[in-house]
Amino acid sequence: MLTIKLPQIFRVHQVPRIFWEDGIMSGYRHPTSSALDCVLSSFQMTNETVNIWTHFLPTWYFVWRFLVLSSSLDFCREPHHWPLLIYLLLVCLYPFASSCAHTFSSMSARARHICYFCDYGALSLYSLGEPLRGPRRRDGDRDWQPLPTLFSLAGCAFAYGAYAMPDPWVSGVLHRYFVPVAAFNSFVCTGLSCYSRFPELERPRLSKVLRTAAFVYPFLYDNIPLFYRLLFCFWSSCSWNEAVAGYCYHLLFALLTGFLFASHLPERLAPGRFDYIGHSHQLFHVCAVLGTHFQLEAVLSDVCSRWAWLRGLLPPPGLPGTFGTAGLALLGNAAIIGAFTAALPRAPGGSPGVPAEAGRRRDP
């Protein structure tokens, strides 16, 4: 009878410091696990198991939503749906990339860095930006040419620029420059979040501040249209529709996600009590997925309610501005990840070797 031996689990002081997590005292996998061991560990209880499944299962939920929408929307022949198509593909990508990062991050210290570099890149792609175009003239010509852009992080400038802009802002100055500025923010953000892994051992507080700032600033910028729409509804007599309600829930879960990421609660208050179930990163994953779900519902509501109006006001997106942008974003992310990967041997804990204490078995 074939038997499968599950990988051994370690306590915090039995693995190198680069693998330590605040408030997590046990449940660590071997720091030089094989790829097979990493996969097998997702079926036993470790401090990463719930992290893996809280993003792996939602990946297939979003894939299912994409397939259902594909049967009712003409993504091939309707250019106005192309921004939605790319947004849906990237919504499926980022939880899958995160699940893979958590699965294979225990292969080595170097692999851990690379896994999370890819995770940051997927988050950037998730919020891909769409080049915006001016309104149609009566003769069908455009008032101005599209501005070049790549991608943006955390606020989904792609979908917001295409479908969620407040009515008074459509084709205005902020609408024209919204995605290009978000694209610049994204490059800074991706580079900053990757760089934050380098001082992780010597200056952990600096690393945490850099990584938090890398995500908070683009989030605040990219959600300016939502903040305006919500404040306008609170302080005026605008109708409270499904899109506005969905964006409210999205922002609520986004704020919870940021709080959990920065606070490391509840495990910081009771180290060792939440090693396997209930620690902040697991809650972070759940809130992130719920926020994406409500964001998707709100975007779809805007597509249904505003599509005819936007279609009459704005020209259809072109292939260079949609799929061309996606290709440039992929290349940009690959270049950033490649540059930081090449620099890893100079980073603390970045060399392929593992310190001697990794194999020792002693209690903290």
Would you spell out the secondary-structure blueprint of this structure?
Blueprint: E1 9-11, E2 26-29, H1 35-41, H2 49-72, H3 82-104, H4 109-126, H5 157-164, H6 173-195, H7 204-222, H8 224-235, H9 242-263, H10 280-313, H11 319-342
Helix pairs in contact: 2-3, 2-10, 3-4, 4-6, 4-11, 5-10, 6-7, 6-11, 9-10
Verbal overview:
The chain has 364 residues and is mostly helical. Helices cover 59% and strands 2% of the residues. It has eleven helices and two strands. It has helices spanning 35-41, 49-72, 82-104, 109-126, 157-164, 173-195, 204-222, 224-235, 242-263, 280-313, 319-342, and strands spanning 9-11, 26-29. Helix 5 (157-164) runs parallel beside helix 10. The longest helix is centred in the last third of the chain and has 34 residues, at 280-313. It is elongated.
Key attributes of the depicted protein:
disordered C terminus; 2 strands; 11 helices; two-stranded antiparallel sheet; 364 residues; elongated; mainly alpha
Describe the structure in brief.
With 364 residues, this protein is mostly helical.
Count, helices: 11
Tell the overall outline: elongated
- End-to-end distance: 38 Å
The percent range for helix content is 55-70%
Q: What is the average of the pLDDT values? A: 81
Helix/strand class: mainly alpha
